[in-house]
Amino acid sequence: xxxxxxxxxxxxxxxxxxxxxxxxxxxxxxxxxxxxxxxxxxxxxxxxxxxxxxxxxxxxxxxxxxxxxxxxxxxxxxxxxxxxxxxxxxxxxxxxxxxxxxxxxxxxxxxxxxxxxxxxxxxxxxxxxxxxxxxxxxxxxxxxxxxxxxxxxxxxxxxxxxxxxxxxxxxxxxxxxxxxxxxxxxxxxxxxxxxxxxxxxxxxxxxxxxxxxxxxxxxxxxxxxxxxxxxxxxxxxxxxxxxxxxxxxxxxxxxxxxxxxxxxxxxxxxxxxxxxxxxxxxxxxxxxxxxxxxxxxxxxxxxxxxxxxxxxxxxxxxxxxx
Length: 322
Known about the structure:
The chain is of the alpha/beta class. It folds into two domains: 137 residues, Rossmann fold (3-Layer(aba) Sandwich), CATH 3.40.50; 101 residues, Rossmann fold (3-Layer(aba) Sandwich), CATH 3.40.50. It is 41% helix and 19% strand. A seven-stranded mixed sheet has the order 7-6-8-9-10-12-13, sandwiched between helices. A six-stranded parallel sheet has the order 2-1-3-4-5-11, with helices on both faces. The termini are far apart.
């Protein structure tokens, strides 16, 4: 009799445990199977990456936007660490720097990161296989070398290039140094001009003109917004050939635009995510180095530089495949 009573109690307890686990709202694993995007800020570039991700993953994604606010990011990443996600996609270098020390178990794929080796997520660019074991991703530095190559294809005789940078802003200085190395490798003469305030734009461009600069490159830094409106005016007036490498700078005046193709970046990140969803471990996937390029030529302005009249007065643009 005692044995029968104990068996009945045991079965009843098992039933209660199973009921608790299956009851909606009581499950400790209610977020399992979901994928979220943790984005530093909502920009057109980030939205294009997300569009590429959603196409590659064939699903809509929930986006957690930090709003470029570090304290908010700290709170949000801790919340994400407490969730049992199937996968987390991280967009932007600051978001990856927040993620690496806080999230150690959830599989992570990152994108929109030029250099992950100073974020804590990866350690040595010469060893892309060496990274935090739950994190992998795509490193996409700006396509500076491709900008030079395409510029020389259009204007092979114009080999004196110029660049404006902010000597007090770290990313601007790094871009200037990288571009200088690539320009030297390509056999270009490079003249650089510093600028820290929008009021200095006219003087900086005048200095480049006096030094007979033929082509001015707009790098993808924050400093470009200070001088790009005036530079684009000068480009439209054919004072300089303008090559735009900054996806945030819009408007007529650049003959050539060479930027990252952000939707393609998203698709490549989706490829990595699909591998993880199929069972691969992040630790087994080296960091991918790839900078898919979007090229656009203003053919009207190009024809004016080439010395023959355009077919019509409207600006015609074409997107090229590199």
